[in-house]
Amino acid sequence: MIIEKIFNNNAIIAKDSGKDELVVMGRGIGFKKNAGDPVDVSLIEKTFVLKQNDASEKFKALMADAPAEYVALSHDIIEYAKQSLKVRLSDYIYVTLTDHLTHALRLWDQGIRNTNPLIWEIQRCYPKEYGIALQALQIIEDYTRIRLPDDEAGNIALHLINAQMNSSGHRIADVTRQTQQIDDILNIVKYSYNNEIDESSVSYERFITHLRYFFQRSRKKEAVESVDDFLLKQVRTKYKKAHSCVLKIEQYLDTRLLDEERLYLTIHIQRVTQRQTE
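Below the sequence we write its predicted structure tokens.
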């Protein structure tokens, strides 16, 4: 493994024998070294590869400004999130989360406290990501001895959600808007049935997952699998109240949903509003 670029005493860019570019971190790993020198593997503490070229270039630019401690901190949070969510996260999260945490911790040092107006909606719509983000606050405290407020967990959760969309073209603003829309749809269902939704049920989790992918499909203009017309008619007849709720959602979104999407939403609403043991 050969050093390609040195950021500071504790962080470098290296290339392995397969010519893959790696971010390598470790105490003193860049001390008194030059580009072209072999890496002292005994000093390696963290290593990660950014496969997406654009993300790699942006990360290099970020490393010139972000403290190595914050890069390591972000790395540990991302690795914990990957293990907990069991999903692939876009390489861009190494850029966006590191940049966000650097900014957030600098603002904290300046006595500036930011609130998150969507904190309740994030907890409700993305409980897994929010739970991981709360643990991230503990990781941050272990590194820095700073305990950021729970509002910051909401911000970290948004980055995790965004990274699951797996595209550099998405922005946190898009995820924020989607979160608000999902919360509005849940309220439409709630008030249509004049009843609370059991947010601990499997049906609720499936409904939220469907809504998340619905918005992703809509943004990418992806088609859903077509279904038999007879089935559509059967579901509309059998679950009239749920189908009526779907029409309200359609009106809220100000768009004409495909019949297939109406079918799936109707079934999910029927299940999530049923009082049953799962």
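The longest strand covers residues 2-8.
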